[in-house]
Amino acid sequence: MTLHRGLNEWLEEVVALCKPDAVRWCDGSEGEFRELCRLMMDTGTLVQLNPTYRPNSYLARSDPADTARVEDRTFICCEKESDAGPTNHWEAPDKMRARLKELFSGCMRGRTLYVIPYSMGPVGSHIAKIGVQLTDSPYVVANMQIMARVGSRVLKYLGEDGPFVRGLHSVGHPLAEPRQPDLSWPCNAQNKYICHFPETREILSFGSGYGGNALLGKKCHALRIASAQARDEGWLAEHMLILKITPPGGKAHYVCAAFPSACGKTNLAMLIPTLPHWKVECLGDDIAWMKFGADGRLYAINPEAGFFGVAPGTSYETNYNAMRTLDANCIFTNCALTPGGDVWWEGMTEQPPLKLVDWLRRPWTPDCGRTAAHPNARFTAPARQCPVIADDWQDPRGVPVSAILFGGRRASVMPLVNESFDWRHGTFLGSIMSSERTAAATGNVGELRFDPFAMLPFCGYHMGDYFAHWLELGRQADPAKLPRIYYVNWFRKNETGKFLWPGYGENSRVLKWIIERCEGRAQAVDTPIGRLPTRDALDVDGVEVDPADLEVLLNCNREAWLKDLPAIRKHYDRFGARLPGELREELEALDRRLRERA
Fold first, then answer.
1. How far apart are the first and last CA of the chain?
2. Looking at residue 444, what is its pLDDT?
3. What stretch of H or E contains 431?
4. Sign of CA dihedral 299, 303, 305, 310
5. Which residues pair with 113 in a beta bridge?
6. pLDDT at 448
7. What is the mean pLDDT of residues 477-489?
8. Looking at the domain covering 306-385, what would its CATH class be?
């Protein structure tokens, strides 16, 4: 319970509308977590895994119609359609509220309404923000306990009149009678809405119980709502990992990095460096909130307390530290179940088990012609369990950022690493982040798929204004104290389709050059696209990289870049008059530099 009048009044309104059978205030305790898990085991939502393999861990299997974020049902409900921009689905707030009021009416009959007070970021940090989620899903409560700081201490800090983000969520499946048997995964597949009201800092989510649709602290609060808050208050809410890298005998540096999906984000966050005596530690694998400190530097926190990662493809070979993080106290969703009571997913081991129960509860064998785990199967794991979690990952002051990385999956054009000329040019590089379509994606093979700042699905307002916000922060800051900005590309290929760079732990060599650049020690050469490492500046001792391949990796291919320019112009046209003029100027300056004779 709380003395916060605004929270109590809102709760009363929701109870009157949704009509739950009971209300429970969540305290965030271990006992509460175990109690909720026992409740979900009784309804068939969870299966307890063999404690010999994974103590205090569980497997959930969702409805087949509720397995991922639903971008087409995700809305930004700001007053003016033009403020949502071309990358978001918009609906008028009054119209959406009326529609949702009908859906939420009586939607929690037969269920308990859980009140989840949570802090995104260490409780009391000047960078952190508080939210309260009301939900009828114990699965959401259990996952939010892992993903955020939840419970009584948050309410205490909130006090009697503190600001908070309001989040209302329902699976949209009321029980007609008190003793009616529940579904193992209740949802309302025909009526899914994930709606954000940036002006009033509210989130209304209906119909889905899965992932970012239901765990409202994650993408909904930490990115879509927070990005609007950051614009209004002068900070940054970004889809970025945070890592700490310490050279032998040197001082630690902190790096943030934004990559689209399938570009090695979690692998980089938990990197095991191949460079002797270099140390890489993790502070977060997905989201960074950054504010300027009194010293003029940009400081970052990870607003989350856990990892919500994609399981398929994760293994001891691809990400040893992630696998170690999953040893205990985890919730797995839509993975396969082994006869011994453990989880399995594609890519976890070189050879699959001979017999499994798949994510749809069917018998599975390697020759049955279907995957055992859903491609978007997930793990929810406490960040504190990561073997390389940094000691200061919960420092309420945040950590000073030395460098920001952008990157996509490009088989051509983009070099291994490119340093921007300055903050404005770095903003330009972030705005043109792209990957090339593969045969597995819709569209033409090789066609550029732009994902600016890796924020395409997550920016809570007009992306042209988002670019302008980055530029404005750069203008207000001391240029000498701003993080340096880089564009990296681990995925360059030759004509036969072979990767030119080994990636994984060898990416520490690129990080080494970046850190040495931040310290003013590494050499670079100016090119039309930015500053690239000299051949001698990139440490490749002991790496099997053909000298001719290295030449390609560290080269600016003018002709290839010129061929990309029309696609970049078309991408910019999407933002119309709200694209900052400075970015048009950067594009035209790039064009001129590319056409100049060296």
1. 70
2. 56
3. helix 423-431
4. negative
5. 23
6. 85
7. 98
8. mainly beta
The token pair at 379 is 């793990």
263 catalytic per annotation: yes
For residue 411, which amino acid is it? A
Task: CATH 3.90.228.20 in the chain: give the residue spans.
Answer: 238-304+391-595
**Three-state SS at 132:** strand
For the residues 281-285, what does the mean pLDDT come to? 98
Q: Which of 115, 106, 165, 105 is nearest to 137 (CA)?
A: 115
What's the CA dihedral at 266, 272, 278, 283 to 10 degrees? 30
The dihedral sign for the CA sequence 326, 330, 331, 337? positive
pLDDT recorded at residue 441:
40
Mean pLDDT value of segment 536-555 = 94
Query: For residue 440, what pLDDT is reported?
Result: 38
Q: Where in the chain is the domain with CATH 3.40.449.10?
A: 5-45+66-234
Instruction: Report CA-CA distances (Å) from 377 to 89, 95, 211, 362, 363.
Output: 26, 34, 10, 16, 18
The predicted pLDDT at position 262 comes to 74
Share of the chain above pLDDT 90, in %: 94
Does 446 have pLDDT greater than 70?
no
**Considering all CA atoms of the chain, what is the largest pairwise distance in Å, rounded to the nearest integer?**
79
Q: How far is Cα 437 from Cα 448, in angstroms, rounded to an integer?
A: 6
What is the domain class of 5-45+66-234 according to CATH? alpha beta
Query: What share of residues in the chain are helix, strand, coil (percent, to 5)?
Result: 30, 20, 45
Distance CA 150, CA 134 (A): 13
CATH of domain 238-304+391-595: 3.90.228.20
Question: Residue 597 has what pLDDT?
Answer: 67
> Active-site residue among 26, 37, 256, 263?
263
- Return the half-sphere exposure (C-beta side, CA atoms, 13 A cut-off) of residue 225: 25
Cα angle value 436/560/588 (rounded, 5°): 100
User: Is 392 within 8 Å of 319 (Cβ atoms)?
Assistant: no
Q: Can you tell me the distance from the alpha carbon of 182 to that of 178, in angstroms, rounded to the nearest whole number?
A: 10
Whether 237 and 222 have beta carbons less than 8 Å apart is answered as: yes
Q: Which residue has the tokens 């502070």?
A: 283
* pLDDT over threshold 80, residue 472: yes
